[in-house]
Design brief:
The protein is of the alpha+beta class. It has helices spanning 63-77, 84-104, 195-198, 203-212, 215-228; strands at 3-11, 21-25, 28-31, 35-44, 49-56, 112-121, 124-130, 134-139, 142-145, 151-152, 161-162, 166-167, 178-182, 189-193, 235-243. Strands 2, 3, 5, 6, 7, 12 and 13 form a seven-stranded antiparallel β-sheet that branches. The chain has a six-stranded antiparallel β-sheet with strand order 4-1-15-14-8-9.
Amino acid sequence: MTYIAVSALSHVGAVRDHQEDSLVVGPWTLCATVTETPQTLFFALGTPLAVAVADGLGGHPGGEVASAMVAQQLAEIGSLLDSEDRIREALNACNREVHAAAARDPALTTMGTTVAGVVVTADGVLAFNVGDSRVYAAGPDGVQQLSTDDRLSGGDLPPGIVTQTLGGSDEQAAVDPHLIKSPLSEDTSYLICTDGLTDPVPADVIGQTLHQQEDGQALFTLWKAAIEAGGPDNITMALVRVGS
């Protein structure tokens, strides 16, 4: 029987005093919670399986609230996300819900979150993102970033200006998720992660680790690399692999 293995880890990092990341794996969520030891879940291939991370916006109130809302919504409807159109509609629905919750509570004004993930179906893998959390595919030909960073950088700009989020300051804007479909292959695994990993850890280190190690061990090694590089932000990762 073909199965989907999902290993996950979420940690506050070495600097932040609380966790604003959330994680969804199928019907399960991990919101504002820390687990240094990678956990692995197994699912049968068939019904669409959504695996995603959401990174609450730092410097804004309620980042952990926004990321948890998105994770919980994707956990509820993930089994229905069998096309690019449905994923796009779901993320826009999440965007509206985060804005509505912020409008009801002045303490949550401008709260927002990024999101990145994959939906695994019997027909392939749909990768998606809004913001600068990332999805990588690690296969025989190397490691490729599937997500597109919604982020300004370079020149005189401050580092890490995120240009598109779910929620945030622009209450009227719909989001335009980045979507890409890949064929299903047992030779390819998918890393989904927040920028708490990708900011301090170079892409070549991520690639080498994914090729040299498997599942939970790879996540633990990447977490250690982020901490040793200063651990400036919350670190949340999921590694998705299809096997038989």
